[in-house]
Amino acid sequence: MAYTFFHLIFFIFLIPLCSLAQNNGRVPLGSILTANEASNPWLSPSGDFAFGFQQLEDKDLFLLSIWYHNIPDKTVVWYVNSSDSVPRGSTVKLDAQIGLVLRDPQGFQLWSTNAISNQLDHGFMNDTGNFVLKGRDNSSLWESFSFPADTILPLQELETGSVLNSRHSETNFSQGRFSLRFLDNGDLVLTARTLPNTTYDDVVYYDSQTSKPTNTSNSGYRLVFNRNGIISIVTSNNQTEQIGSPTLFPPVSEDYFRATLASDGILASYYHPRNSTGNQNWTVLWSKPDDICDTAAAATGSGACGYNSICNLVNGRPVCECPDGYTLLDPNDKYGSCMPNYTQSCGEVEQGTAGELYDFVVINGADWPRSDYQVMTPSTEVGCREACLHDCFCAAAIFRNNTCYKKKLPLSNGWNSGVLNPVAFLKYRKSDAPPGIEGSSSRPKDRETLIVVESVLLGSSFFLNILLIVAACSGFYLIYKKNIVKSHPNGETNLRYFTYKELVEATNGFKEELGRGSFGIVYKGELQISSKSSAIAVKKLDRVAQDTEKEFRAEVNTIGQTNHKNLVRLLGFCDEGQNRLLVYEYMRNGTLSSFLFTTPKPSWKLRTQIAMGIARGLVYLHEECSIQIIHCDIKPQNILLDDYYNARISDFGMAKLLVMNQSRTLTNIRGTKGYVAPEWFRNTQVSAKVDVYSFGVLLLEIICCRRSVEDIESVEEGYAILTDWVWDCFQERRLDTLVENDSEALNDKTMLERFVKVGIWCVQEDSSIRPKMRKVSQMLEGIVEVMVPPCPSPFAS
């Protein structure tokens, strides 16, 4: 009993002592934090700042960071630039040999401070927000202030050569497009890039002009953020030049301060009450530049917003918008590029059908002043519009001051000009008319017809009027009925309904076979569309359940509602007795399979563009179309190439057509050997991650120009299974072996390594580790940084 009482007293006194120890800022060697909800951070003595793992929107991802701990929103002020997020179970350890070490759940090192010293004694989380590694003599061996992310804090100084990088978005901490650079000449500049993680196309959109070419002894050499929240550049002769002009000076004792380069490219200084109550936010003291929509415009790059976007200045911040007919390439990146919702074809325009195919969205005040390829002056507004309509290269035209500026895609440096009063004409395909826009070219003719009919009625006898009315109604009814049957059999899509006889005639009795697949045979045909003959591909389905007509049409309509430039377009179908056929647009350059595995290899640039196109198409199927579509059979044979070698995914939506008589489960589909995700064989729930796995295999094939499963003779050479061989080469740092004799790929090792790492992430056996297709697409395009992947198979040696 006395023993128990002694321990109780001991713990009563020990608990406050432990709490005190955790809040003195000192971190002993060997200390470890684990990325999970229960992880307690390392706090500064006052508790103002914390070092540890912050949970992100994706609850299984965490950010190693430093943040303001005593305010509700836990504002992050520093994070590891080389790894924007880490999975649950990752650890950071204060190692006696190299300092802080970040590892993933498998123990693979992701980042370290590399503070190699036998003098390391402890870590210290300072009340200034600076995490310091201390030596035995209390010297500083490494500190976070020397490696800023997107924020600087009071008492932090930057030497020339220092860089801050914006994050991708408020919730995505991967590197964004904007940087703050303190140049060696003493200038503090803000720069924008076309893409993150690149070192080219830097456009300076703010310059402190603190370099002195004629008197270098008076140039800036140090940036100082003082206790009062004032940021200044100190010159070589100890003069100061203040950055920003605050209109008020909040008391230091009552407020926190920071300066952050935001994801929209604005450098701003903020303050926040220390004793925050309610939902108080950070308040802006000053910001630079004054008008980023104007100053970020340059001959190269996309401007303050992404390509094809329009920049509007609202309260000093850029607001980026996609014009009608365009959508964000990445819906999670509101400052990113916009993509057109249609594919333009010169072949169509050359046939003289431009007026039937295209029309314009008119936007008053918008301009993309750096995208001109032809200037016409003098011109009229009507002439400008017509010139763009009949020019297959023209995506938009700007009319101002009696001058017409014709523009190609992508459109750059878009903004709303309140002074020049331009009128923008954005071309769109009528079949892809933006919501709320009437795209039919027949309406003016309809109005003319009505006027003629009214004139005849007024000048004729009553009896003739009756006959004319009956005849007109009958004619309109028959035309309407025909259009309904032909173009809208279910009132839901623009799919055309074909009779079996029509398709027999179009294919010349199914004479020319294009290929055979899991779903049937594909034949080439010719069809009259808009008074000209167009090639089509007709797929005869031979494995579709025959007793589910209603469900078949429902699934076909789902396919017909898809609209993306990286998908093969479904034109119509036939559902006549036992005959079920699908009619697609014809892709002249055939399958990726016949294109990829040839000698000589296709160019590296074209292969990477094809890979990114496939990824975008899968993002659309998984996340952007009205009903999620899981392909279930991604392989080179199901990727077609159009006239311009753009990748087009085919056979999407077919999986459901095959299993409509199987209670709508996908458990019996197995895809194609070499591309099948492991979960198919584990009797587990199948998700869109099966397509991610198949895409990963396909990506590695595109990189290496090798099939996923080689013949048995290749076993001796060690690459019978492509995924295994790629992992071995990646581990052994032999990436050049993957693309042997491909000089173009070897000269682009940064992209090569990025693509290989993305491929390995996609083919992870554990589906929960695989990224979603949206992140895959972002990683391929360099928007999101790619971490080092673990071994794809947890059972591999």
UniProtKB/TrEMBL annotation:
<keyword id="KW-0732">Signal</keyword>
<feature type="domain" description="Bulb-type lectin">
    <location>
        <begin position="29"/>
        <end position="146"/>
    </location>
</feature>
<keyword id="KW-0245">EGF-like domain</keyword>
<feature type="domain" description="Protein kinase">
    <location>
        <begin position="508"/>
        <end position="796"/>
    </location>
</feature>
<feature type="signal peptide">
    <location>
        <begin position="1"/>
        <end position="21"/>
    </location>
</feature>
<keyword id="KW-1015">Disulfide bond</keyword>
<protein>
    <recommendedName>
        <fullName>Receptor-like serine/threonine-protein kinase</fullName>
        <ecNumber>2.7.11.1</ecNumber>
    </recommendedName>
</protein>
<keyword id="KW-1133">Transmembrane helix</keyword>
<dbReference type="InterPro" id="IPR000719">
    <property type="entry name" value="Prot_kinase_dom"/>
</dbReference>
<keyword id="KW-0675">Receptor</keyword>
<keyword id="KW-0812">Transmembrane</keyword>
<feature type="transmembrane region" description="Helical">
    <location>
        <begin position="456"/>
        <end position="480"/>
    </location>
</feature>
<dbReference type="InterPro" id="IPR008271">
    <property type="entry name" value="Ser/Thr_kinase_AS"/>
</dbReference>
<dbReference type="InterPro" id="IPR051343">
    <property type="entry name" value="G-type_lectin_kinases/EP1-like"/>
</dbReference>
<dbReference type="Pfam" id="PF00954">
    <property type="entry name" value="S_locus_glycop"/>
</dbReference>
<keyword id="KW-0547">Nucleotide-binding</keyword>
<dbReference type="GO" id="GO:0005524">
    <property type="term" value="F:ATP binding"/>
</dbReference>
<dbReference type="InterPro" id="IPR036426">
    <property type="entry name" value="Bulb-type_lectin_dom_sf"/>
</dbReference>
<feature type="binding site">
    <location>
        <position position="540"/>
    </location>
    <ligand>
        <name>ATP</name>
    </ligand>
</feature>
<dbReference type="Pfam" id="PF01453">
    <property type="entry name" value="B_lectin"/>
</dbReference>
<keyword id="KW-0472">Membrane</keyword>
<dbReference type="InterPro" id="IPR001480">
    <property type="entry name" value="Bulb-type_lectin_dom"/>
</dbReference>
<keyword id="KW-0418">Kinase</keyword>
<comment type="similarity">
    <text>Belongs to the protein kinase superfamily. Ser/Thr protein kinase family.</text>
</comment>
<dbReference type="GO" id="GO:0004674">
    <property type="term" value="F:protein serine/threonine kinase activity"/>
</dbReference>
<keyword id="KW-0723">Serine/threonine-protein kinase</keyword>
<dbReference type="GO" id="GO:0030246">
    <property type="term" value="F:carbohydrate binding"/>
</dbReference>
<dbReference type="InterPro" id="IPR017441">
    <property type="entry name" value="Protein_kinase_ATP_BS"/>
</dbReference>
<dbReference type="InterPro" id="IPR024171">
    <property type="entry name" value="SRK-like_kinase"/>
</dbReference>
<keyword id="KW-0067">ATP-binding</keyword>
<dbReference type="Pfam" id="PF00069">
    <property type="entry name" value="Pkinase"/>
</dbReference>
<dbReference type="InterPro" id="IPR000858">
    <property type="entry name" value="S_locus_glycoprot_dom"/>
</dbReference>
<dbReference type="InterPro" id="IPR011009">
    <property type="entry name" value="Kinase-like_dom_sf"/>
</dbReference>
<dbReference type="GO" id="GO:0016020">
    <property type="term" value="C:membrane"/>
</dbReference>
<keyword id="KW-0808">Transferase</keyword>
<dbReference type="GO" id="GO:0048544">
    <property type="term" value="P:recognition of pollen"/>
</dbReference>
<keyword id="KW-0325">Glycoprotein</keyword>
